[in-house]
Amino acid sequence: MAWGHDYEGPVLIDNEHRFPWEDRFSDREYIGPDPVLTTNPYDVPDIQSLLAEDPKSPPSSTLSVSQFTTLAQDVFFALPEELRSVIATCLPTLDVLNLRLVSRAFWTMFNNQQFWASRFGDSSDRSWLFEARHSTETQNWRWLYRRTNSLRRGFGLQNRVRVWNLAQKLVDILDFHWVDIGVNYSPCSDQRVEASGEMWEQPVAGYSLFDKGCRLFERHLVTIPEQLSRISVCSIQLGDMSYVTGLKFTTVVGGIRQIGYWATPEQSLETSDVCGFKLAVGERGIQALQCIDSKSSTYPWIGCPERSPKTLRLNVGDHVADLEIGFDGCKIVSLSVYSQFPSPNKMLHDGNRLRNSGMWYPDVPEQNLCLNEASFPPRENYLSGYKPLFWTSFGGSGGSGIRRIDFTYDIAVPSEHQTFGCQASGEWTKVTDFAIDGAGGEFINAIEVFQHYPNEGYPWLVEEGTVVAFKTTTNRERSCFFSFHSDPPSSLPFVVTASPGTAITGFYGSHRPHDGSGITALGVISEAIEGK
């Protein structure tokens, strides 16, 4: 199971050909048993002999300090040596060694046994050698530190360090405790909208491996109090992602309604008016939220929104009365809002339903970008559940900077090149180049997308179909057909034509790499052209 990290080496992380919310982890292939991974990390015979070794003198220090450093200029000389020692023990080893280069006051730390002993403390860089703290042998701590550097560790110590570092990731989690203050049991409205991670469900028959997504264990309802003054969240770091674990609402008189797993610190924002939320949602749960007030003003993020799809699905446009919060064993995996008014879908007009209800990466497209939603056949499938859409604009403002389209069938290149998608190239890769004179006024004004609907296959494939080709046409009546095959598909295309004064300047869509598919849905972005 993927925990968002590489297990300190045995797992590969593919950040180039997978989006951050996807399963990016795969096991390394070993020709034979790995001598480090197969060695007992707890019972390491080398440790006792190491602690009993006679210390050997390390090389003499060749440290030189700038001649401009004088006692008068060095403010640290004003401190007693004992206090300088305390400062050094609170710093990482590398920082202390660098500090010696700029301050003569810290020269003595190199020979300070108290400082080197602190390197073997609970949270320092040799904490994994816990036997040293309980040894009856008198230790030369500086020698022991040097003796246990990465180049001089046997297989057992290497695995000890690996497992110890993994265990440290659990330490902060153990500080969390469940808090339940002011929870309700029935909402005051039946107008409910939900956003969640990718929920895993136990199949009715057979066995399904829980290897991605999240599980829902329990739901709790919290009424947002009157005279609200502050909203707070607590977050937890799991691998390389952070997730929200609890919510707290504080009133102007200090009243609290709070639910979830809690520890310190927490993040807060001051607000008295909540008409909806913008969420950052990962595959495994809620990562951050923004409050939206009655004036459609958006507050700063609380939580960690980086590298996750965003959605306005919970921006109902009316006063939010109740929240239903779903939890797994340690974090929030779903969030639902109930509105006091009869129209919670105020923001979901036909022309903007996908923009306001979809999960978008890297962010929700701006209002000045037309998504041509009516020409996106699978739109209804992306208004609920966890089905992220990624998008990109090309060519700068109004497409005036576009020089060419490099579209790779069933492949994409890194996102920094502003290409569409991120899947790796394969045996069936084909590249089609189409040059466009954007600087000279040429722009894309029509796209034909060929969507294929097979008679059998994955249920989503039969229902939503998959993109097999598309054709691009410019205002100069030049066109290019992008397909792996030279002949057009038998399926009829849907056509998006830019209205007068606009140009097609981007794409949005989705893919399903875990099902072996490339880009399965393709939408078209257009925007107004300056001067038109």
UniProtKB/TrEMBL annotation:
Pfam families: DUF7600. Signal peptide: none annotated. Transmembrane segments: none annotated. PROSITE patterns: FBOX. Residues 73-119 form the F-box domain. InterPro entries: DUF7600, F-box-like_dom_sf, F-box_dom, Jacalin-like_lectin_dom_sf. This is F-box domain-containing protein. It comes from Colletotrichum gloeosporioides (Anthracnose fungus).
